[in-house]
Amino acid sequence: MRRENDAQFFMSHSLMKQINDEIIVLEQELAKLRNAKKALETTPYADVAAGQSVAHSIMSTFNFGDGNGPVPAKRHINSDGTEGGWVANTATVAATAYVGPDAQVYGNAQVSGNAWVFGKARVYGNARVFGSARVHDNAQICGNAVVYDNAQVFGNAVVYDNAWVSENADVFGNARVFGNARVFDKAQVFGNARVSGDAWVTVGRSK
To answer: What is the dihedral of CA 118, 121, 122, 126, to 10 degrees?
Structure first.
């Protein structure tokens, strides 16, 4: 009986030692995880090239290439569940709007309604795109420009300053619309055209 009790004691002692050893290993691994978490939370933003993202703690950032370096941003989730392009936290994109995976919206820009921004288009500054407007290809809407209704801006076109493009107008090619210019109705501005100042471009009327 004594030998049996001694054997049971030895087995229990060995089991306890094994459990204690495993607890020590687990505590060491937990300490490593805590140190890694602390390092992540205190690591400054890394320098990244334009077009690259970097994670900082739980906040994602993106470098829009505008000279401001990485800024807080997130990818827009479109209404169909697809992941869209990068949107700065300072910009606003409605849940109903579509942003293609390679498009960008940043600064204080706003995209709302049923507007689409896709291709490699960029909307930034204080620009607004809304209604059923479409901005695509390599087009840029910036400054205080506004594109709305069923207007389209595409190709390499740029709309900036205080210009407006509205109704069923199209601006495309290498066209530039800027200043206080207005392009509306079913007007088309394309090629290397420049519309500026207080000009109005429309169908059947001009100012």
So the answer is: -80
Write the pLDDT tens digit of every residue in 90-115: 999 999 999 999 999 999 999 999 99
The predicted structure's pLDDT at residue 42:
46
Task: Give dist(CA 19, CA 121) in Å, integer.
Answer: 60
Quick one: tokens of 133?
């407007």
- 116 and 31 share a domain? no
Is 34 in the same domain as 106?
Answer: no
On whether the pTM is more than 0.90, the answer is: no
Instruction: Say yes or no: 24 and 93 in one domain.
Output: no
> Which strand ranges, in their side-by-side order, compose the sheet holding 128-129?
92-93, 110-111, 128-129, 146-147, 164-165, 182-183, 200-201
Judge whether 55 lies within some domain.
Answer: no
